[in-house]
Structure formats: C-alpha cells, structure tokens
Amino acid sequence: MPVSSLNSQKQKTSLVTLVGPPNSGKSTLYNLLSGSKAKTVNYPGSTIEYSISRFLKHFDVQAALVDSPGIVSLMPDSPEEKLSIDYLFSHPKYGSPDLIVITADASQLSRHLFLVQQVIDTNAKVIVALTMIDLLNKKGYDISVNRLNQLLKCDVIPVNGRNGKGLDNLIDSIKKNLKKKKSKVIYNYKNDYGTKLVDIYKTTEFIENEVLYPIGEGAKQKTADNDLLYDELKIKSDIIKIKPDERTLKLDRLFLNKYWGILIFLLIMASVFTSIFWLAAPLMDIVDLLFTTLSNNVTTLFGETWFSNLLSDGIITGVGSVLIFIPQIMILFLLLGFLEDTGYLARGAMLVDRPLSKIGLNGKSFVPMLSGFACAIPAIMATRTIKNKKERFLTIFIIPLMSCSARLPVYALLLAFLLHGSPFLSGITLALIYLFSITSSLIIAGIINKYQSKIIKVKDSSSFILELPTYRLPNIKNVIRNTITNANHYVKRAGPIIIIFSLVIWFLTYFPNSNPVITNSGDLSKKEVLELKSSERLTNSYASMIGNFIEPVMKPLGMDWRIGVSIITTFAAREVFVSSMAMIFKVTDTEGDLRTSIVDAMKNAKIKDTNKKLFTTSTVIGLIVFFVFALQCISTIAVSKKETGGWRLPILQLVIFTTMAYVLTFITVNGLKLFGVE
Amino acid sequence: MTAADLEFGQKATIRNIDLTHPSSQRILEFGFTPGQEIELLNKTLFNDPISISVRGSLIALRKDDAESIQI
Prior knowledge:
The complex is a heterodimer.
Chain A: H1 3-10, E1 14-19, H2 26-33, E2 39-42, E3 49-54, E4 63-67, H3 79-89, E5 99-105, H4 109-121, E6 126-131, H5 133-138, E7 141-143, H6 145-152, E8 155-158, H7 167-179, H8 193-211, E9 212-214, H9 227-236, H10 246-255, H11 260-302, H12 306-323, H13 326-342, H14 344-357, H15 366-371, H16 376-382, H17 389-398, H18 408-419, H19 423-450, H20 452-455, E10 465-468, H21 476-510, H22 526-539, H23 542-549, H24 551-554, H25 561-569, H26 576-584, H27 594-604, H28 617-629, H29 634-644, H30 648-674
Parallel strand pairs in A: 1-4, 1-5, 5-6, 6-8
Antiparallel strand pairs in A: 2-3, 3-4, 7-9
Helix pairs in contact in A: 4-8, 11-12, 11-13, 12-21, 13-16, 13-21, 16-29, 17-19, 18-19, 18-27, 18-28, 21-29, 23-25, 25-26, 28-30, 29-30
Chain B: E1 11-13, E2 16-17, H1 24-29, E3 37-43, E4 50-54, E5 57-61, H2 63-66, E6 69-70
C-alpha cells in the first residue's frame, strides 16, 4: 500500500501549519504551543527541515502542529524554497493543512502582511497571530485589531511570545476554525509576479494606513483594542510612516561603525571562540572520564574477552565519541542563540560579508568557520543559517580545514618531540600552525570557488539581502530550547554513523589476533601484560595489515606502517593518534607522563632493518602538515553527509583533503631533506 | 541613480525596480517598491554591504543588490 493512502486513512487528526517570515516570532510561538514530543524531520530528498508535534496537552487541541521554514513570500527563489512552499500546501506525509496560522510582526506591518495577503489569496483557512505589538507601541503607534480583522476577513489574534499573553485567545480561535469546513486551496506561480507583487504591497500599505493610529512617541498604550480611541485618533492622523526603532538606530551607529563595529565584532567572536574551547574542556573531560571508567569497569567485570573488549573499546568508546561533542555543540548554539536573539548576529554577518564574498562565501559563513576551530561537527550544523545553497556547501566544504580542538593533543605531542618541551616555543609554533591553517583554508576556498561548478555543483546567484532585526533582550527559554533541539539532532543524526564506524575501526584493530600470548618472565605486572597484549594485538591486526599494505605509500614520506596504522585509527577521532602511538610503540610505562614516554619511544624508533631514525625533524613537521589538511574524522564525514543530503560532498572532501595532505607532506618532508634538515 | 549611490544618511524615494536584475524579486519582496521612501543608514568597512531603512525596517544588502533599486 502506498504510504500516502496509508496516511490519509489514519488522518483523522487535523493539521495546523505555522507560517511566517523570518524574525516574526514564529519559532517562539511554535515553542509555546508545541508539546514535548516535537520531532524535527527533513522533507523527503532535501535538507530542508520542519518540526512537527502535538499541541501542548492542556490546550486540548486535537491536531498536529507543523512549524514550516521561514519564508518571505510564496514565490520560490530557489529549488529548496520551492519545495518548502509546495509542501506547505500539500505535505507529502500529512496532506494539506486544515488551518494555517501566520505570524506577522505588527511593528513592520506592511512588510509582514505581504505574506499574509499571499496566503489568504490561496483561499486557505487562515489565522493571523499578531506579534511584537510592544515594539509597535514603542514606535508611537497602536493597532486596531478589529479593523484589521474586518479588512483581512480572518481572525487576527495579538500574541505576546515573551509572556504568552493572548495565547488562550489564539487557541480558542484555532479550535473554532478547525470546526469549520476545510477550504480548497488554489495556488499556482504566476508569470506576472513582478507587477502582482507591487499590487499586493499597495494593498498592505492601504491596510497598514487603515489599522494603525498614532499614540505619541514612546507612549505606553495598552492594546485593549479600544475602538473609541481608534476612531478619535485615526481622524487626526494622515499617512502612517513607521520609522525604525530609535534605540536600534543608535546601537547600529556603534555596532555597524566602520572601525568600532569591526573591533567589537572581533572581540565578541573571540570570546565565543574561546568559550567553545575552554568552557567545554572541563565538561568534555567529565564525559571522557565517565566513559573511560565505564569501559574499564566492563573490562574488570567481564574479564579480557573479545566480548568485553567489544563492549568497552567498541560500543562504550563509540557512544562516548558521540557524546563527547555535546558540550561544544551546546555551548556554541547557546551563545549563537543569544547573539541571534538579540539581533546582533545579522549585523555580524553584514560586517564580514564583503571580504568573504571575495572567495565565494557569505557573511553568514563566518560563525560556522570560526566554530570549526573548536569542532567541525557543530560548525557544519551551524551553516544552516546560510540560505544560499552554493555558499552553504562551500562553507561546509572548507570547515574541516579549520584546525579543530581534536588536533591539539596531536600537535602537542609532535611539538613536544620537535621542541623538547619548551613551552614558549611550543606556544609560538602552535599559533603559527593556526595561522597556517587559516591562510591555507582561505586560499583553498578561493580555489574551490573557482572550480565550484565542478565541485559543489550547485548554481545559486549570490546575493546578500538580510533583515536587521530590532535589538531585543534575548528570550532565554527559547534559546535553551533551540540548543537542546540542536544537541538532540546531532545525537540522532550523526550518532548512529559515528558508532558504526567506531565499531568498524574497533574490529580492524582487534582482529584477527584477538588473544595474543605474552610470555611473562615474571617481572611484568598484570597491567603491563595487558598493555603488551593490546600492543601485540594491534601489531598483528587487520589495521596493521592495511598499514603494511599502504607502507609503500608512507615510505616516500619517510614514514612506515606504524605511523600508517596510527593515522588509520585517527579516523575514529584525531586525538586517538596519541594513544595509538602509545600502543604501537609499546609504551608501557604509564607511571609518568604518557606524552614524555611516547616522545622517548619516538626518539628510539628505527626504520625497519636499518639504523636510521624513524622520527626526524622533517618527518614530524611533515606529520603536522598532514594533520593540518587531512580529513581523518568519520564524525565530520557523517555530519557533512547529513547536512548536504548526499555522499558526494563528503567523499570529495575526504579525497581532496587527504590527497592534498599527502602531497604537501611529501613536499615538506623531501623539501626539508633537500635543505639538509633530516 | 540607484540606492547603491546613496550617501550616509541620505534619503530618497524609489522610482523603479530594475526587473532584469537577478535580485529584483527578493528586493521587491523585502518591501522596496516604487514610491517608498528609503534612507541609507550604515555603510560597513568596505562601504559594502550597506543598510537601508524601508517601511520601518532595516535591511542589509550588498551594493550589487542595491543597484536594482532606482531612485
């Protein structure tokens, strides 16, 4: 039985769809109305998302509630937008909505009624939820809801998303409208849209002029819909000319100032960046500790069997590697949510749009790119704010080049080898590595942009038109809710793929020599025997076979299969490099500092059958270069696949960045040798 | 003249929207229709993008996009 008929059979519940332009308070309203079981789903075959849930129980509305993506008009501008508009009226799973609730910002009425008018023209059953009346009052006007109701010929309900005022009236109206017969929606794109558009605006201007009346600047008028007051004040007023919010204009003079604006922007971004880095670190340590303890306990409980190892090193570590990113994701989205809710984020995007547009990016690419320095996973998720598909994909494409925090332990180890632990030199070199990774990623973005028709394969004419919302205090509840939703997404979407890949890597590193024999001459402790065992196991594992297989590839880099295996294991997570090195070079002395022990082991490692040192200055610098470019992180690949809706982009990223890493490492190592640096 | 030529704080009335411009539809949808009064409120570091007020709202747009707004 086709899915559609299945659904139409059980479709006894009604469907209420929320529609509204960006910044109209639509999501806030959705959060106020929807129950806890909200789901976020993709439209089939696309990356466009919508949320669906039941109404909160105490509202007693027997209907499903859909939150559609924010749109400016019903005329699509891109294939993605066409899809969201088509599905608005005929959802592939839920059919056409019984009722559409449109949010409209009363403080920019003629602009927001534009969409309202378009939806009403489709003959759909409509309720208008009028938001931000407090802002309108601040601008010196009030609105006659009755008059608007008459003119639009549909229910108009003032709602305050901050304190929930008016919500009960909205619910009553929803219930009442759901009882009425469903109307037949007529909706098609018109060719004469350009002129039609101007006509619609003429209508909304007329309505705005009719329903608004001046109450004096800054007056605190209660919106009791006082018709007498309306009649009295309306006569006196001529043409309504709403001005932008005064406070917003003043703040913009600072925040969008040519010089101060940039400085403030950099300061804000620097603090966001450092917070994802430093605030998340202790939380990540807790997650890490939790899963390490759990994994150790399993080993103690079940003994040293393949099953216990699967549990501890495969599943528990796999789940841990999913959850370890939660602190960064939450902190990032919490901070971005605050910045967005205040209205600042749109300004930030405006400030950096120009330089980024030079390399085919968008002002909105900045924050995701910056977040990439903490972790590519939340960063790629944050690109959803970029409407233009080409720019969004290009941003996703280069995010893995940002030096993420998982690379830090690797750099720390390699720098400890190179610089003999001098903290000063290490700090400077680390800064240089970051600078190097930023510069090269920008250059690569420019190159990829040049060939984007072949790589990204998305055509979208670049433009930057963005509403700068009125500055407001952030709605904390909303921000927290969105943060939780984002964390939830990540776990549900990327989680399974990450765990599966972790299991694959576990399998490759555990089998076939799952239980190696260690001859204990008596002077080894139980712990040392275990460490030797896992070291033996890895040395004879499938992973090391692959490592041996790729040794011819590693040789030109002056490296051997052992480094190859360590690099293969980093696909689980880059920082695993350190523990893999420890395993493979049989570092058993964990009494002291692990890093120092590995560095010592590295210093003594020799190339097979020769007396030549494996780790030299040139190979270690080469390794750093490799880590700067290579995409060796399955989580990134998984999220990139989810967010781009296909395997094309992640596979290209993997191939291009890893090839580039290889070639550049080759050039570095052999170039250094040429200049006499061993 | 187009909105891209406006100076800081300069006001103008929209004469027409260039419908051959690729961004014209978006521009119209954002409320830039003939007859509306606009004002250039901010220019960023490279004088681009700019922010313009229309219908009581602030819109940031690139100069390329603003060129479709004839004043």
